[in-house]
Write a structure and sequence with these properties.
The structure holds two protein chains of two kinds. By secondary structure, chain A is an all-alpha fold. Chain A is built from eight helices and no strands. Chain A has a single domain, classed as Cytochrome c oxidase, subunit III, four-helix bundle (Four Helix Bundle (Hemerythrin (Met), subunit A)). Chain A starts with a helix and ends with a helix. Chain B folds into two domains: about 55 residues; about 30 residues. Classes of the chains: A mainly alpha, B mainly alpha.
């Protein structure tokens, strides 16, 4: 009886923060499931965009095909390869940390960040090319185009824009993880932070894997 | 002769030294060898090149279908290996399949309406 009260007091006291992290506070399975629950909401977010794309592709097939030809599949393809490679380096970063190779893990995380940067630069140059042609959301030129083309470009900017925001969020997550790894808060026995950052990054990659063929390759 | 009682049958099998203090993780944190990641990356990149190459052939509607089919394979590979789903617990897999089925209903019923309007 007194043991029970003693334990209850300990939990209320917060004195034990100076000790090594207690295993009963660490719930890797719960952490991972929580992250997946969040990823489901992200899947449905982009999923709804894709449904919109599917409906309007069905309504305006020629307009969509014509617009798709004006996007550069080589740039899109390079972006796809860059993101696939970054998923690879991120997965390896987690694996190396599981093996205890902190330096290798940090280097691989950093390479993932570089890939994120390259992706954003290519995306930016694609968008600027469109802007230079008078093609941006709510532009005058856009309002003169056939209805289907207006919808295509509207969807294009919104979807690739939201995706790019997620790339940036993913990069911030990875930077945060790198800081935690550096200070040994994340390591082989407490690895869920980098695993979850990796899951988010892979989601970003998954979305692009579907986005690329639908926008760039239907021409 | 005093025989030291053997506890082999009563205690759990020996756990690995210091690292494995966490109870249930040991099987899930199956560490994949590096070459698996490399092979999956190579397959993914090849499939990407195939998708782009096929788009240059004039297959109209079938380009999209083939591209989506290849994209589904790529997504499955990323989810199974990079996201580790091949080694995760069943209840997580069931949740993911459930969400994908839900989405399938969303898009399926939507297109069942729109695709058949005049």
């Amino acid at each position: 009886m007194s043991e029970l009260t003693a334990n209850a007091n300990n939990l209320n006291d917060h004195d034990h923060h100076g000790d090594a992290p207690h295993e009963h506070h660490y719930d890797p399975e719960g952490d991972k499931m929580g992250m997946w629950l969040f990823l489901f909401t992200e899947l449905l977010l982009f999923g709804i965009f894709f449904i919109g794309f599917a409906v309007y592709l069905n309504m305006y097939p020629e307009d969509f095909s014509r617009c798709s030809k004006r996007l550069d599949p080589i740039l899109g393809g390079i972006n796809t390869l860059v993101l696939l490679f970054s998923s690879f380096t991120m997965a390896l970063a987690i694996q190396q940390l599981q093996k205890g190779n902190k330096t290798a893990s940090q280097i691989l995380s950093f390479i993932t960040l570089i890939c994120a940067g390259v992706f954003c630069l290519i995306k930016k140059s694609e968008w600027l090319h469109k802007f230079d042609g008078g093609l941006f959301l709510n532009s005058e030129y856009l309002s003169t185009l056939p209805h289907g083309e207006q919808i295509f470009y509207g969807l294009y900017f919104v979807m690739t824009g939201t995706h790019a925001i997620h790339v940036i969020i993913g990069a911030i997550l990875i930077i945060t993880t790198m800081v935690f790894v550096h200070f040994d808060k994340v390591h082989a026995d407490r690895i869920t932070l980098i695993e979850n950052a990796g899951l988010f990054w892979h989601l970003v990659d998954l979305i692009w894997i579907f986005l690329f063929p639908l926008y760039y390759l239907i021409g | 002769m005093y025989k030291v009682p053997s506890f082999k049958h009563e205690t759990a099998p020996p756990v690995d030294p210091p690292k494995a203090v966490h109870e249930d993780d040991h099987d899930e944190h199956h560490i994949m060898p590096t070459y698996v990641y490399v092979i999956i990356l190579a397959i993914l990149m090849c499939l990407t090149v195939v998708t782009v190459a096929v788009s240059y052939l004039n297959m109209q509607k079938y380009t999209v279908l083939l591209a989506l089919f290849i994209a589904t394979i790529k997504v499955t590979l990323v989810m199974m290996y990079f996201m580790h789903l091949k080694y995760e617990k069943k209840n997580l897999i069931i949740m993911i399949v459930g969400v994908l089925l839900t989405y399938g209903i969303f898009i399926g019923l939507t297109m069942a309406d729109f695709a058949f309007r005049i």
